[in-house]
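sry for the spam today, last one i promise. C-alpha cells for design, 404 residues
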C-alpha cells in the first residue's frame, strides 16, 4: 500500500504540468518542469534510501518519527498551529497508505510542483512575455527550495500558501474581481497554519490586499468601495478570531511569548538568546543589542544582511557551506535585477508588490534568525521572488505565442 501511495504522489507531481496553460507548454517548458520535479524526487530518494542528508537529521527526521509513533500508539496528533498541523498531515497520510518517509517526502514534492506552477502563473501576470522555461530552471537550482521542499519540512506548505495567496491577490487586481481576494485570504491562512507568526502576517496581508484593491478599482465607485471595505472587515474579524483561538502548542504560541516577555523588543531578545544558546557552528557570531530602539534596529539590519547573504566565503569551513552561499548570490542577483528594473522604469505595480512582500516577509523572518542554517531554511518562503526578477531582466522578450 505504501508503494501505491508513493507512485500516486509521483504521478500527481508529474501531471501537475497540465496546470500550466496550454500556450506555455512548449517542449522546453515541459522538459524543464520534469527537471524540477525529477531533481526533487532524486533528493528525496537519496535522503531515504542512501544517506540522511546534512540538515535532514533533526526536525525533518523527528516530524516523521512523531507521526510514526502516533500511528503505532493510535494517538492522533493534536491539531495545533505549527508543528502539530504538519505532523497531523503526515499521520493522516500514513494512516491511509502506511508509514514511509519516502511517502511523506513525495507529498512535499507534489506541493513543491504546485508551488512552481503558481510562481509561473504569477510571472505571467507581472509580464506576459516571459517564458516559464527560465523560471522553472532557476527554481530547480535554487538551493533552499530544492532541499527544503524535498524533505519532510513544513516549509513547502508555507510556500504553497504564500505563493498561491499572492497569485490570487494579483489575479483579483488583474481581473478586477474581488472574489479572488477571498481565495487569497484562505490560502494565506493555510500558510499561517504552519507557523504562528505567519498566521498574523496572513491576516495583515489579507487586510492590506483589500485596501489596495479598493484603492485601485473601487475608489471612484462609493457603493463598490463600501462593499469591498465591508468584506475586508469581515475577513479581518475572521482572521483575528483564527489568530486568537487556533490552538498552539508550547514553543509555537508567539502571542503567549509576547505576553510573557512584555514587549516585542524583549521577545526578540529572549527568542534569539534561546536559539543562540545552542551555539550552532553556523552562528552569526554576534548578538543584537535590544537595550534601545536604535541599537535594536541597527542590530536587526545587520542580522538581515547576514540572513540574505548566507555564509561569507571567508567563514565557509566545509564545502556544504557554499550551498547557502550560492543561494545568497542568487538572491542578490535578483535584487540587482529589481534595481535595474527600477532605474530603467520597467517597474509596474506587481513588481513593486513583490518587492514589498520580499522585504517584509524576509525581514520579519530574519528577526528570529541567529545562524546561517536557520536562514537557509527560512529563505524558502521568499526565494521564488528574486527568480522572477532575474527572468524579467535576462529573459524578457520570450513571447508566450512562441510556446504554443
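last one done:
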Amino acid at each position: 500500500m505504501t508503494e501505491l501511495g508513493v507512485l500516486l504522489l509521483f504521478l500527481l507531481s508529474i501531471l501537475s504540468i497540465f496546470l500550466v496553460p496550454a500556450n506555455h507548454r512548449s517542449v522546453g517548458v515541459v522538459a524543464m518542469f520534469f527537471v524540477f520535479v525529477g531533481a526533487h524526487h532524486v533528493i528525496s530518494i537519496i535522503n531515504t534510501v542512501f544517506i540522511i542528508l546534512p540538515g535532514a537529521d533533526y526536525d525533518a527526521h523527528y516530524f516523521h518519527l512523531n507521526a510514526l509513533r502516533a500511528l503505532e500508539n493510535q494517538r492522533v496528533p493534536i491539531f495545533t498551529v505549527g508543528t502539530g498541523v504538519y505532523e497531523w498531515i503526515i499521520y493522516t497520510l500514513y494512516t491511509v497508505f502506511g508509514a514511509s518517509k519516502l511517502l511523506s517526502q513525495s507529498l512535499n514534492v507534489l506541493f513543491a510542483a504546485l508551488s512552481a506552477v503558481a510562481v509561473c502563473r504569477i510571472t505571467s501576470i507581472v509580464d506576459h512575455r516571459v517564458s516559464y522555461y527560465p523560471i522553472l530552471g532557476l527554481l530547480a537550482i535554487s538551493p533552499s527550495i530544492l532541499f527544503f521542499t524535498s524533505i519532510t519540512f513544513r516549509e513547502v506548505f508555507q510556500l504553497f500558501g504564500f505563493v498561491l495567496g499572492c497569485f490570487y491577490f494579483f489575479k483579483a487586481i488583474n481581473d478586477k474581481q474581488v472574489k479572488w481576494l477571498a481565495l487569497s485570504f484562505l490560502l494565506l491562512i493555510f500558510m499561517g497554519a504552519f507557523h504562528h507568526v505567519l498566521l498574523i502576517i496572513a491576516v495583515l496581508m489579507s487586510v492590506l490586499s483589500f485596501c489596495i484593491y479598493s484603492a485601485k478599482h473601487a475608489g471612484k465607485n462609493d457603493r463598490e468601495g463600501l462593499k469591498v471595505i465591508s468584506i475586508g472587515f469581515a475577513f479581518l474579524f475572521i482572521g483575528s478570531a483564527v489568530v486568537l483561538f487556533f490552538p498552539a502548542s508550547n514553543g509555537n504560541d508567539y502571542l503567549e511569548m509576547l505576553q510573557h516577555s512584555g514587549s516585542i523588543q524583549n521577545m526578540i531578545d529572549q527568542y534569539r538568546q534561546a536559539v543562540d544558546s545552542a551555539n550552532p557552528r553556523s552562528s552569526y557570531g554576534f548578538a543584537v543589542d535590544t537595550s534601545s530602539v536604535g541599537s535594536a534596529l541597527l542590530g536587526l539590519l545587520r542580522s538581515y544582511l547576514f540572513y540574505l547573504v548566507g555564509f561569507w566565503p571567508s567563514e565557509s569551513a566545509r564545502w556544504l557551506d557554499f550551498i547557502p552561499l550560492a543561494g545568497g548570490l542568487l538572491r542578490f542577483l535578483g535584487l540587482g535585477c529589481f534595481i535595474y528594473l527600477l532605474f530603467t522604469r520597467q517597474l509596474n505595480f506587481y513588481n513593486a508588490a513583490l518587492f514589498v512582500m520580499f522585504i517584509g516577509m524576509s525581514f520579519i523572518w530574519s528577526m528570529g534568525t541567529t545562524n546561517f542554517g536557520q536562514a537557509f531554511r527560512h529563505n524558502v518562503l521568499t526565494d521564488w521572488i528574486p527568480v522572477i526578477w532575474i527572468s524579467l531582466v535576462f529573459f524578457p522578450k520570450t513571447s508566450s505565442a512562441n510556446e504554443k
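The first helix runs from residue 2 to 15. ok im logging off now
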